[in-house]
Amino acid sequence: MATYILVPGADGTAWYWHLVVPELRDRGHTVVTVDLPSDDSAGLDAFADAIVDAVRTTAPDPQGPVVLVAQSLGGFSAPLICDRVPVDRIVLVNAMVPRPGETAGDWWGVTGQAAARSAYAEAIGRGADAEFDPRTDFFHDVPADVTDEALAAPQAGPPAALFAQPWPLKAWPDLPTRFLQGRDDRFFPLEFQREVVRERLGIDVEVLPGGHLLALSRPREVAAELLKEA
């Protein structure tokens, strides 16, 4: 049996993974979820502490392989725990991949995300100047009831401090790493992610059907990929 540590993206809530969790637990695996800090002064260190605390509370003695899973912005914080928790491998999901010394605030311009999103919006008929809209960019393939539940919750957003702190690791953790990418992600388009991930991690993305919020739109498919790590 494996232990899965599921780190959310910019919304910072364990709820993001709530449809994936039973798919893993029903097969006997241990699942650790975490609500990340929302205080505006919380930076990467506070995020890492929150993840480690959740692991120590839920799985103080992890059994089997420990699989660290990070969604979107979680790509900046999740790797920081690898010298504090016995992680065996990492799975990134539509994630941001940082370089040493890069801030999450700088990542967007350095990678060219805005231009990539604009080009993709034009390619699918929305127009190159399409304004960002959560329902259109994030929830376009998420069931309506799940979307309504997500948007009815308080929308705190990630702390400002998180975007200002340089990524402190000297290199990506020396662990087997996979990258799951939504084919129809409108926020981090597929071809954009292929280039960024190949350049920064030296691996190819594995394409799944769905958009940016795969754990909400395709939870069974995501769980099936994670179960390959057990």
TrEMBL record:
Keywords: Hydrolase
Signal sequence extent: none
Molecular function, one GO term: hydrolase activity
Record-linked InterPro entries: AB_hydrolase_1, AB_hydrolase_fold, Sec-Metab_Biosynth_Hydrolase
Keyword Hydrolase: yes
Source organism superkingdom: Bacteria
Transmembrane segment boundaries: none
Gene3D superfamilies per the UniProt record, alphabetical: alpha/beta hydrolase
SUPFAM superfamilies in the record: alpha/beta-Hydrolases (SSF53474)
All residue ranges annotated as the AB hydrolase-1 domain in the record: 5-224
PANTHER family given in the database record: AB HYDROLASE-1 DOMAIN-CONTAINING PROTEIN-RELATED, ESTERASE_LIPASE_THIOESTERASE DOMAIN-CONTAINING PROTEIN
Protein name stated in the entry: Alpha/beta hydrolase family protein
Source organism: Actinacidiphila paucisporea
Lineage: Bacteria, Bacillati, Actinomycetota, Actinomycetes, Kitasatosporales
